């Protein structure tokens, strides 16, 4: 991913994101049920000289694909963009707002969310970019440093290495919805806990977004129905900001907050796998 003043993704970044969403190579299926499937990217095999050395396992890249038979790709795309509507359907949101406009198809925003106790609540500052091209709707984001939005003492600053959505129409009122993410919630959670949790959370998030899509057209009729700045940048009321004022946020620069109250065993996780990891 680019750094410095070139933080805004170009066509090659979107093309690579779409390739990852559509690829089956180097992905292992972890869950498949009811039109939903979850994959985890295969970790590279360490070189012989590196085996046995101490290393920190990376956070998995996960991919979740859902078949939607009653909502169009365009409507789901609008749901993901519409910040005012998100506060209506997202039960975990604490704060969510756009900070500044970078280009006609990129902005920087803030999002914080509620985590189950005893975890501390999280927040992120991300650059979000979007593109509609070749019968596909895409939104991607990744964490950035903003000079006026440093980490807060009451929240753990999480990291989106790359998170995004690909919506592909399959009919006038149907689509496939792919969510791909590599994100680190930081804190002191073991990486294996993070990886396991993400596999179960992704389907729940997508189901919630799908329900929001079903209800969005009626809601939008009564809430600025003609305002869609993601299609019409002239409608945006955000202040402009130069991309050079931002930098990619690296996880290594953030403090790990002690969350020693969280204790879960691998045995419990494996038991949960056998109960919920249904396959068609």
Automatic annotation (TrEMBL):
Pfam families in the record: START
Compositional bias (Basic and acidic residues): 218-231, 260-280
Subcellular location, record wording: Cell projection, Cilium, Flagellum; Cytoplasm; Membrane
PANTHER family, A to Z: PHOSPHATIDYLCHOLINE TRANSFER PROTEIN (PTHR19308), START DOMAIN CONTAINING 10 (PTHR19308:SF33)
Region (Disordered): 217-280
Protein name stated in the entry: START domain-containing protein 10
Keyword Transport: yes
Chief place of localization: other
The entry's keywords: Acetylation, Cell projection, Cilium, Cytoplasm, Flagellum, Lipid transport, Lipid-binding, Membrane, Phosphoprotein, Transport
Entry GO MF terms: lipid binding
The START domain, residue ranges: 37-218
Lineage per the UniProt record: Eukaryota, Metazoa, Chordata, Craniata, Vertebrata
One of the record's GO cellular component terms: membrane
GO terms (BP aspect): lipid transport
């Amino acid at each position: 991913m680019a750094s410095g003043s070139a933080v805004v993704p170009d066509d090659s970044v979107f093309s690579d994101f779409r390739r990852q969403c559509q690829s089956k190579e180097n992905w292992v299926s972890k869950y498949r049920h009811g039109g939903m499937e979850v994959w985890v990217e295969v970790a590279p095999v360490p070189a012989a000289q590196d085996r046995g050395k101490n290393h920190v396992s990376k956070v998995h890249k996960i991919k979740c694909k859902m078949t939607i038979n009653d909502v169009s790709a365009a409507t789901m795309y609008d749901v993901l963009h519409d910040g005012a509507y998100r506060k209506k359907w997202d039960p975990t949101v604490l704060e969510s707002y756009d900070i500044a406009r970078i280009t006609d198809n990129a902005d920087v925003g803030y999002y914080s969310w509620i985590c189950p106790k005893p975890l501390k609540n999280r927040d992120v500052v991300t650059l979000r970019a979007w593109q509609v091209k070749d019968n596909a709707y895409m939104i991607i984001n990744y964490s950035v440093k903003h000079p006026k939005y440093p980490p807060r003492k009451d929240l753990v600053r999480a990291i989106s290495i790359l998170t995004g959505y690909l919506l592909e129409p399959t009919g006038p009122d149907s689509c496939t919805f792919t969510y791909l993410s590599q994100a680190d919630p930081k804190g002191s959670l073991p990486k294996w806990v993070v990886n396991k949790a993400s596999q179960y959370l992704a389907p729940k998030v997508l189901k919630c977004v799908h329900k929001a899509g079903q209800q969005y057209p009626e809601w939008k009729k009564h809430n600025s129905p003609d305002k869609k700045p993601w299609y019409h940048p002239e409608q945006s009321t955000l202040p402009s900001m130069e991309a050079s004022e931002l930098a990619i946020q690296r996880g290594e620069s953030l403090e790990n907050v002690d969350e020693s109250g969280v204790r879960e065993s691998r045995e419990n996780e494996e038991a949960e796998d056998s109960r919920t990891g249904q396959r068609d």
